[in-house]
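ugh ok so i messed up the first submission bc i forgot one of the chains. this is the corrected input, ALL of the components this time, i swear. 162 residues overall. if the numbers dont match what u have on ur side tell me asap before i send this to the collaborators (the ones from the other lab, u know who)
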Amino acid sequence: VTEVISPGLVTRSANWWQELPLHALEPNQWEALCDGCGRCCLHSLEEVESGRVFITDVACRLLDVNTGQCVDYRLRQSRVPQCVQLTPDNIDQCVWLPETCAYRLRAQGLPLPQWHYLVCGDREAVQRAGIGVAGRCVSETPQRLKRLQERVVAWIEPKVLE
Ligand code: SF4
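and heres the new structure output, hopefully the right one now
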């Protein structure tokens, strides 16, 4: 859906996040799709026999555990080589992303949830909905990484990798 607002100037629909496929998003729209939950920044454990993935409350060392934001987003991949840059082409392979992840939902053609800030206009709604990890996680340390089994959380459902 397009709307002509003046000669030569065309804007996309106000609801671009619901209507455009991931491949059609501009770079700034791609970034804006993230709900800021921080769930993808938590360490997880895979149970090999069952394929179940359990999420812990131990966060990447670059995550500010109070705000749930990456403290060095621009350089995150050089500082944490295992940090995966999400793209429209790899999103289907990122099976470890939470079910609530906006990229995952849109890749499946599903709508964003009501608490997503693009839908409700409130950046804090993700926290009130119990989705954001801010204030509910700890930063990684060598000791915590060695004992991840003890830090599995109940507030994120384990998922089965397909
Ligand atoms: S899980 Fe998805 S929506 Fe949440 S912070 Fe990570 S990329 Fe953004």
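quick check: The beta strands are 2-6, 9-12, 42-47, 52-59, 63-64, 69-70, 138-139, 159-160. that seems consistent at least. The pocket of iron/sulfur cluster is lined by residues 34-40, 86, 97-98, 101-103 (CB under 6 Å).
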